[in-house]
């Protein structure tokens, strides 16, 4: 359910803000505005990279994929398609966005974009130490390998044009707070308060976005955090009685403060990087609305919590 909300928001941003010049040429902004889509981040956008690495965080088994075409688990932490799949389909590029680590990737898939995300990932490298998944910093190294392969398929000039016109999405941050501050306070010794850790993450994110720019990227979409305190795993571990679970407001407040800082940061980065375009996508409010008013989405409170009622691992709801 949250995947659909997120898809609607991002599609709206892309079409109305980033793709509007297409109208001047009489071309539908929905079709072929972007030659490729490139995605970095965590389980909110990972379409299967964790299938190809040594980690316990995998979604290659039931109940994942019960609503996916062919009713099979594909490595997506979802009942069905994820937002990147919906996005490339909506933009008329292809039906789904494949994971870059798939050894069977065709040249055509490479030319129209791939996914570098890894479930459980984070902006902070420390977030992935215990699980062995791919932090965003290493996803950038994968992107360099992608560029090399792309240039082996098409000319360097065509490859540079593809990357500069590609839509680049980075969706990460939630796991950093969960694994390094709330549940495993491994960063608390280093920072006096969570504001300091927020600033640390945003500086790392800034560096990562600048690296992508210097590798040729120009069009970026960066979603903010959803309500962390409403994630099923967070509230399940905090309340003994599952029938009395409520969202953890302190964590939600931390998410809103981080989002405000991120929203202010992106225009600043854009001003320093000529020809770049950074768009902030606010996902907090629509997800919070779904949690607070589940009846609007034909669901109960427990069902509305990120729509993860089928995404159970070892009896616990997880969000990677």
What is the end-to-end distance? 16 Å
Summarize the main sheet.
4 strands, parallel
The percent range for strand residues is 5-15%
The coarse silhouette is: globular
Radius of gyration: 19 Å
From N to C, what is the helix and strand string? Answer: HEHHHHEHHEHHEHHEE
Brief summary of the model shown:
Helix content is 42%, strand content 8%. The chain has helices spanning 2-18, 83-90, 107-112, 136-153, 156-165, 174-182, 194-214, 232-238, 249-272, 284-292, 301-304, and strands spanning 37-41, 167-171, 219-223, 277-281, 312-313, 316-317.
What does this protein structure show overall?
There is one protein chain. With 320 residues, the protein is of the alpha/beta class. Helices cover 42% and strands 8% of the residues. The protein has helices spanning 2-18, 83-90, 107-112, 136-153, 156-165, 174-182, 194-214, 232-238, 249-272, 284-292, 301-304, and strands at residues 37-41, 167-171, 219-223, 277-281, 312-313, 316-317. The strands form 2 sheets. The protein has a 4-stranded parallel beta sheet with strand order 1-2-3-4, with helices on both faces. Helix 4 crosses helix 5 (156-165). The chain is globular. The two termini are 16 Å apart. Residues 1-6, 15-30 and 306-320 have low confidence and may be disordered.
């Amino acid at each position: 359910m949250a995947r659909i909300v997120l898809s609607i928001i991002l599609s709206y941003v892309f079409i109305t803000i980033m793709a509007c010049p297409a109208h001047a040429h009489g071309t539908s902004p929905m079709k072929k505005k972007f030659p490729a889509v490139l995605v970095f981040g965590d389980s909110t956008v990972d379409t299967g990279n964790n299938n190809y690495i040594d980690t316990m965080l995998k979604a290659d088994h039931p109940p994942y994929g019960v609503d996916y075409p062919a009713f099979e688990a594909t490595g997506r932490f979802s009942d069905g398609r994820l937002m990147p799949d919906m996005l490339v389909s909506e933009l008329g590029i292809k039906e789904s966005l494949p994971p870059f680590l798939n050894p069977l990737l065709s040249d055509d898939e490479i030319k129209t974009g791939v996914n570098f995300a890894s479930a459980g990932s984070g902006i902070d490298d420390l977030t992935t130490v215990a699980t062995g998944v791919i932090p965003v910093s290493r996803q950038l190294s994968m992107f360099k390998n992608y560029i090399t392969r792309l240039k082996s398929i098409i000319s360097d000039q065509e490859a540079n044009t593809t990357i500069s016109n590609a839509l680049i999405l980075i969706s990460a941050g939630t796991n950093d707070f969960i694994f390094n501050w709330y549940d495993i306070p491994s960063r608390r010794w280093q920072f006096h308060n969570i504001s300091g850790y927020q600033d640390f993450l945003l500086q790392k994110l800034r560096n990562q976005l600048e690296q992508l720019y210097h590798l040729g990227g120009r069009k970026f979409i960066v979603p903010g955090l959803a309500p962390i305190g409403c994630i099923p795993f967070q509230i399940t571990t905090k309340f003994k009685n599952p029938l009395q679970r409520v969202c953890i407001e302190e964590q939600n407040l931390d998410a809103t403060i981080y989002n405000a800082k991120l929203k202010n940061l992106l225009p600043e980065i854009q001003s320093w990087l000529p020809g770049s375009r950074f768009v902030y996508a606010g996902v907090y409010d629509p997800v919070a609305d779904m949690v607070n008013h589940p009846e609007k989405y034909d669901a109960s409170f427990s069902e509305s919590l990120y729509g993860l009622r089928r995404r159970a691992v070892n009896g616990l709801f997880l969000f990677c």
